[in-house]
Amino acid sequence: MQKVIVLDFGAQYGQLIARRVRDLRVYSEIMPCDAPASEIAAAEPSAIILSGGPASVYAEDAPELDPGIFDLDLPILGFCYGQQIMAKTLGGVVGHTEVGEYGPATISRVSPSRLLDGTPDEQTVWMSHRDSVAKVPDGFTITASTSVCPVASMECAERNLYATQFHPEVRHTTYGTQMLSNFLFGICGLEPSWSMDNLIDSLVDEVRAKVGGDRVILGLSGGVDSSVVGALLSRAIGKQLTCVFVNHGLLRKNEPEEVEEVFTKQFDVDFVHVHAEERYAKLLAGITDPEQKRKIIGTQFWEEFFAVAQQTGGVKFLAQGTIYPDIIESGARKTGGKASTIKSHHNLIPFPEGVSFDLIEPLDHFFKDEVRALGTARALGTALGLPDHIVWRQPFPGPGLAIRIIGDVTPEKLEILKNADAIVREELDAYNARLFEETGERNSEHSCWQYFAVLPDIKSVGVMGDERTYQRPVIVRAVESTDAMTADWAKLPYDVLGKISSRIVAEVPGVNRVVYDCTPKPPGTVEWE
Ligand code: XMP
Predict the structure, then answer these.
(1) Confidence band (pLDDT; 50, 70, 90) for 12?
(2) 526 lines ligand 1 (CB under 6 A)
(3) Which end of the chain has the least Cβ crowding within 10 Å, N or C?
(4) Atom 14 of ligand 1 has which residue's CA nearest to it?
C-alpha cells in the first residue's frame, strides 16, 4: 500500500496533515520527528512530509530530525518548521524575520514551481511564524515570497525536495489542497486509490500478523472507539478476542442491554458482561466529592477488568480504542513525539504486580470522524456493521451518571436520572434528526452536540393536581460544540424545551420541575461535576 509518513514536530496543525493526505485518498501516518531514518525506511513510505512546529530551529531543545532521511531518495515536503529544518540540515540559513507573520498573507510566485503548479501567481496562504529561511541550501530555488518573507516556498526539483513557510494543510490557504495534490500525484506519482475499505483490510492484516494465535482482551465501554476496535478485532481474530463490558450501573437507560445485544448477536467474540452494579453502589455510597467519585469508579474498573483477564488466562494483548486526539491530549506536545507519549499515557493503567500485556491500538492514527467512517465502512462486501446508535453515540463520561447526580449516588436518584435523561435524549435525538433531514448535516450549526439530564441535590415545592409536592428538579443541559474545549448552550426552540419539561414531570415520578442550563463553557463546564 502506498503510504506517506508525516514527521510530527509538534505542530499546531500537524495532525491535520495526515488527515488531508488521507482525504486525497492516499494513506498517511504520523511518526515522531526524531524517528531514525532506518525506521522510516522500514515503514516503506512513498514520500515524507515534515510538519510545522512551535520551536525555533536554533532553540536548545529544538526538535531534530535524522539527516539520513535526505539520503532515502524519497520525495520530501516540509511546512513551516519543516521548511526551516530542511534548510538548516542541508546547509541553508534560518533567521528571525523583522516582523512575524500570523494569519492570512499574500504570496507572489517568483519562479516556476511543480508544487505551485495550477495555482495563481498571487494567492492567499496561512502563515504562522517568526523565523524563516534567510538563505536556501545549494541546489534550491526560491519559488514564492511575501513582502516580509523572502522564502515563502523553495524547492530542489532534482532531488524532489519541496517546502513552504506557509501551511497548505489549513483551509485558509486557498490552494492548499491543490498544492498537496501536486505533491502526491504530480511529483510523487501516487494513485488516489486508498479508502476506508482498504484500511479495514490492512488493519485486519496487521492485527493478525501481530497477534498470531494469542489471546486479546478489550474493555468495551459502549462508545464508538472501543466498539470499532471490538468490531475490527472480531473480524481479524474472532473468538481469540475477549470483550469485557464492566457494567457499573451508571450507564444511561438501556445502554448495557444495547451493548450486549450488538456484541453477542452481531459479532463472534467472547463477550463477558461483568455485573458490577452492586459493588459500585456500595463503593459510592455516601460519596459526594466529584473527584473522589471519579477515582473510585476508575480504580474499580481496572479491578473488575483484571479479574476477568486473570480468569480468562493466557491473555497476551490488551487492545485499546486510543485515537489520535487522545495521544495529543495526553501530552505529545510536551514530549515532542508520539512514541514517548504512548508510554506515559499507558502508565496510567494500574497494572497489578506481575501483570503485563502488549498493547494493540489500531485506531491511534485516526480522528473521530474517520473512526466513525471505519465503523460503517464496507470492506470485502460486508460492513464492519456497527449500528448508528453506537457509531453516532455522543460523548459520555467514563464515570457515567455518577457525575450527573450532584451529591451522593443512590438507587432512587439513579432511577430518576435514567428516566429523565432518556426523555431528554429521545426528544433531542428527534430534534437533531429533523435538522439532519433539513440540512443534510449531522452536526449542523443548530443541532446539539451533547445533551443530557442532571439531577441536583435539592428539592422544591410544586403543585400537582390539588396536592402540594416537594420533589426534585431536573436540569436539562444541551450544548453545541466541536471538541468540548469550548461549548455554547444550545438555543433550543421553546416548543422542544416545553415538550421535554412536560414529559419529564408527567412521566418521571419524584420530579416536579425542569430547568434549562444556559451557561456557555467557559465559564461553565459541560458536565456539572
Ligand atoms: P467538561 O465538563 O470538562 O466536559 O466541560 C468536556 C467533555 O468531557 C466529558 N467529560 C468526561 N469524560 N471522563 C470522561 O471520560 C470524565 O471524568 C469526564 N468529565 C467530563 C464531558 O462529557 C464532555 O464531553
Answers:
(1) low
(2) yes
(3) N
(4) 397
Indicate if 88 and 111 belong to the same structural domain.
Answer: yes
Catalytic residue among 129, 155, 167, 248: 167
CA-closest residue to ligand 1 atom 10? 397
Task: Convert the pLDDT of each residue in 447-481 to its tens digit.
Answer: 789 999 999 999 999 999 889 999 999 999 999 98
Please give the average per-residue pLDDT across 330-343, as a whole number: 42
* pLDDT, position 7: 95
Q: How far is the CA of 529 from the centre of ligand 1 (A)?
A: 9
Q: Is 80 a catalytic residue?
A: yes
Q: Are residues 252 and 363 in the same domain?
A: yes
User: Is 378 a residue whose pLDDT tops 90?
Assistant: no
Q: Is the CB of 524 under 6 A from ligand 1?
A: no
- Across all residues in the chain, what is the average pLDDT? 90
SS3 content of the chain, % helix, strand, coil (to 5): 40, 25, 35
Query: Is 523 contained in some domain?
Result: no
169 is catalytic: yes
Evaluate: CB of 397 within 6 angstroms of ligand 1: yes
* Confidence (pLDDT) at 381: 40
Residue 340: pLDDT band (50, 70, 90) is very low
Is 214 among the domain residues? yes
Return the exposure string of 93-119: e unless at least 16 CB atoms fall within 10 Å of the residue's CB, then b.
ebeebeeebeeebebebbeebebbeeb
How crowded is the C-beta side of 83, counted as CA atoms within 13 Å?
31
**Of 212, 199, 215, 213, whose CA–CA distance to 319 is shortest?**
215
> Number of folded domains in the chain?
3
DSSP state of 348: T
Domain final residue pick, 164, 187, 210:
187
- Taking the CA of residue 393 as centre, how many other CA atoms within 13 Å lie in the half-sphere pointing to its CB? 23
Judgement on whether residues 44 and 158 belong to the same structural domain of the protein: yes
Any atom of ligand 1 within 6 Å of the Cβ of 325: no
pLDDT tens sequence across 154-182: 999 999 999 999 999 988 899 999 999 99
